[in-house]
Amino acid sequence: MKKLTVGVWLLAQAMLMSCSQISTDTAAVTAANEADAAAQGLSLKIELADNQQQNRGQSRSVLTITNNGPEALPAKGWKLYFNGGALKSADSTVATVAHFNGDLHYLAPGPAFKELAPGASATVEVQGRAVRNVSNFPVGFYIVYDAEPGKGIPVSLEIEPGEHFEEATQQFAAKVYEANAAIQDLPATALTKVFPTPDSFQEKGAPFMLDTKVTLVADADFKREAEHLAAVLATATGQKPAIQSNATGKAIFLRKKLGMGAEEYSLSVNPERIEITASAPAGAFYGIQSLKTLLPATAFANKAATVEVAGVEVKDAPRFGYRGFMMDMARNFQPKAEVLKVLDVMALYKMNKLHFHFSEDEGWRLEIRPLPELTAVGGTRAHTTDGSSIVPSYGSGPHADNKAGTGFYSREDFIEILKYARDRHIEVIPEIESPGHARAAIKAMDARYTKLMDEGKKEEAERYLLRDLNDKSVYRSVQGWNDNIMDVSLPSTYTFLETVVDEIRSMYKEAEAPLHTIHFGGDEVPSGVWEKSPSVQRLISQNTEVKNTDDLWYYYFGKVNQLLKERGLYLSGWEEIGLRKVVENGKVNWVPNQQFANENFHVNVWKNDPGSGAEDLAYRMANAGYKVILTGVTHFYLDLAYNPSYTEPGLYWGGYVDIDKPFYFIPYDYLRNLKEDSKGNPLDRSIIKSKEPLTEKGKANIVGIEAPLWSETNLTTEAFEYKLLPKLLGVAERAWSKDPDWAKEKTPAKSEKLYSQAWSEFTNVVGKRELPRLDYYAGGYGYRIPTAGAKVVDGKVAANVQFPGFTIRYTTDGSEPTKSSPAYAEPIAATGAVNLRVFNAAGRGGQTITIQNQSTM
Fold it and tell me: Closest by alpha carbon to 612, among 653, 568, 556, 668?
């Protein structure tokens, strides 16, 4: 899958309260914590004092502890817990910082720490790696007193980054300005009005005028699709048309025609009729989605007497049969309503696979009736000492009522989600993370074991155990856990998996939803695991095919594969399920495992970051026979920050991802467009010189594209949607549409010219048609509004924007620009600080950027 490489600082960060313009919901989410913090009177402030300490890429910060309460803070007998941070105290006599587990750490007073009287403050110097963006600071602070070890009290936090990023901000704004300068503002008549870009599009003739008198005619096989279209028309005109089998006069037709592909359709619009033709319901549905994107954005906001639909002829089919998005609701939870919104936007843009990442170290989010502890314990994050929950992570805080840390989907919720997806031709692929990333499940089954042992039911207690209770193995996962790996030698592990799989299958059956595969994770199992498990040693002594702990990998996925095959399913997983560890010249390498190459394993290949040695891994696995879903971190990890700016939230271990990254991805030749390293700098091309290209055989094994959105830094739905959109539009375009001309052109100069033209067209479509639609569609989405590009040119502040159709507004008096501030029309002559902020058509603003103009006119 994923995630942070060993040693990268701050494994999980939340969006900071100080960046209010990024998330409008943060104050509401933290209100309870703030009230609790105020009641106990402790507050914290972190000030970044040095971001390049001793020129070694380290930071030095000053943590100020202020006692605002009526009682003294004692000199000892307490701990301050927090998430994130490879922090250490500069002076261990004042305080020590220790790792608890996962991303949870704590600071404890040292022998030199003095009692803190009411109204007094104390400072502690802490060190860590250099800060790169707002997500790099510790979050989720709470205090625990030794006298009450099971009670955590939230503590408020203020971040003061100082002036360390001002120069970099000016430089970055200038870089954005130069990139935006290549984007042309195109007239509406030059834009393709169906999105994603169809195979064939012609705008011709007079429009169709949609009104309340229009009849909807559908063949019997397309009844469900007709109901969907009728609901759309009711939104636009206020009248839901009756669905008929024939009609006279103006009408919209859904017609079945044999011989077309399962997702293929044609769409014809003229003044008298709109006709969508397809062979299968999915094709008819995608024709309806294209019709939706023909409608003006206002059709989803206000009912109108008539709505104009441009006259067009469209013939279309997808490039890939797998067009996926992975939603991580395990690390930080998202409510059912947000899942449904995700399905709505996926359907609109013809994406058809929702990878449902419901289980992780930090949360199990799906009710499994025979095992209620999975959600009662594994779905709850809180500071407890009795095993009734799992520990706080990613800033979720000490209380179980935190909506980011605690929550799950009931059986009824999930069935509703499945039906909603089914009706939108989206297959939901559930992921049971295993054998790693399984701490929530392991701890839930531990709680079950303890309860049943207390009742004297030893056999039942051991039935679903996921670890050997006598295992003394020592390991540490990439995310910092030392107890998150299932023991794959235990028969009870497979009993657990069978129970979960069969319960999931029953939900799909009840929902009448398709289930072809279950994703079993399979990534990031650390070294050291299983080595001192008595159960493992027994298996090795009894099974001739398992000679060491490395062989357990193939043993496990062989058994899981068989479990699924017996149920008519195939196995999906992260790339590691299809890899074998080999040692060559003393060096460990991972190569495609021929044992499973012809077993129809579908693998999400995520590792392609430059310098990893795995840049070509997706092609190597496809060439070896694995069904590959291109999921490369460099282009598709939507949780990564948009850019290197300090104010941009998100991780960056795999680089930075804006909407352009998925847009310029070339599926069958992506090595060609690996352009940046993990810091956003131009890539040294020698790194990928000798990498393995995709063969014709391998090309047939590339089944599609998927974009994951991991949730470490998403405490709110706003934070989630901010990262999801507009990046998802680039993913949808590349997954559906054929290779553009620039991708096929071999001459670099010609290709670059064609790309520049295509990029302008795409940004105009996004800025003028699709984002305005998403202001209203499905209740509206909180997509990211781009930050203005800006630089001083000839003594004036010049500015531009990524998406034509958006407006830049500015102030010169130090105030925050609002939707009423002057609109930027030409370079600004004012000296000093010029604040610039981009607004969409609905009047919502993005982040403000300040440009210092020191020029003298």
Answer: 653
CB–CB of 281/260 below 8 Å?
Answer: no
Asked if 530 and 548 touch (Cβ cutoff 8 Å), the reply is no
Rounded distance between C-alpha atoms, residue 197 and residue 303, angstroms: 27
The DSSP code for 77 is: S
Q: What are the Cα distances from residue 822, in Å, to 413, 787, 810, 818, 836?
A: 47, 17, 6, 9, 10
Residue 241: which of 229, 225, 224 has the closest Cα? Answer: 229
Q: For residue 631, how far is the Cα from the chain centroid?
A: 12
Contact 665, 740 (CB under 8 A): no
Question: Any idea of the CA torsion for 558, 561, 566, 569, to the nearest 10 degrees?
Answer: -170
Whole-Å CA distances, 123 to 57, 90, 116, 381, 821: 23, 11, 11, 30, 41
| CB of 605 closer than 8 Å to CB of 628 | yes
- The number of helix segments (H) and strand segments (E) in the chain equals 21, 36
Tokens representing 655 are 């680089």
- This prediction's pTM: 0.94
- Which residues are CB-contacts of 796 (< 8 A; sequence separation ≥ 6)? 827, 828, 829, 853, 855
Per-residue pLDDT tens digits for 833-845: 999 999 999 999 9
Which residues make Cβ contacts (< 8 Å) with residue 611, sequence separation at least 6? 677, 678, 687
How far is Cα 20 from Cα 732, in angstroms, rounded to an integer? 30
Q: What is the pLDDT of residues 103-149, one digit of tens each?
A: 999 999 999 999 999 999 999 999 988 999 999 999 999 999 999 99
Task: Please write the tens of the pLDDT for every residue from 296-354.
Answer: 999 998 888 899 999 999 999 999 999 999 999 999 999 999 999 999 999 999 999 99
Enumerate domains of the chain plus CATH numbers: 26-167 (2.60.40.290), 170-185+784-853 (2.60.40.10), 200-316 (3.30.379.10)
- Would you call 681 exposed, middle or buried from its count of C-beta atoms within 10 A (0-12, 13-18, 19+)? exposed
Q: Residues, the chain, total?
A: 857
Q: Which two tokens stand for residue 167?
A: 């120069």
Give the number of other CB atoms < 10 A from CB of residue 696.
Answer: 7
Q: How far apart are CA 402 and CA 393, in angstroms?
A: 11
Cis preceding linkage at 392, omega within 30: no
Q: Does residue 423 sit in helix, strand or coil? A: coil
* pLDDT tens digits along 803-824: 999 999 999 999 999 999 999 9
Look up residue 361 and give its amino acid: D
Summarised one tens digit per residue, pLDDT across range 248-261 is 778 999 999 999 99
Burial of 757 by CB count in 10 Å (0-12 exposed, 13-18 middle, 19+ buried)?
middle
Interhelix angle 717-724/336-348, rounded to 10 degrees, is 20
Query: For residue 340, which of 322, 357, 354 has the smallest C-alpha distance?
Result: 354
Beta-strand runs (E) in 78-199: 78-83, 88-89, 95-101, 104-109, 121-129, 139-145, 153-154, 156-160
- Of the residues 524, 615, 648, 718, only one is catalytic, namely 524
Closest CA to 435 of 324, 503, 533, 339: 533
The predicted-structure confidence for 535-554, as pLDDT tens digits, reads as follows 999 999 999 999 999 999 99
Strand-strand pairing, 322-328 and 353-357: parallel
Q: Which of 536, 537, 447, 449 is nearest to 486 (CA)?
A: 536
- Give, as one character, the DSSP assignment of residue 673: G
What are the two backbone dihedrals, phi and then psi, of residue 42, each rounded to the nearest 5 degrees?
A: -105, 135
Q: Of 839, 721, 726, which Cα lies nearest the Cα of 781?
A: 721
Q: How confident is the model at residue 454 (pLDDT cuts 50, 70, 90)?
A: very high
Rounded (5°) CA angle 437-442-446 = 165
Whether residue 752 lies in the annotated active site: no
Tokens (6 digits) for 172: 């970055």
| Helical pair 491-511 and 411-422, crossing angle rounded to 10 deg | 50
* Cα 655 to the center of its chain, rounded Å: 14
Which helix (H) or strand (E) segment is 445 a member of?
Answer: helix 439-454
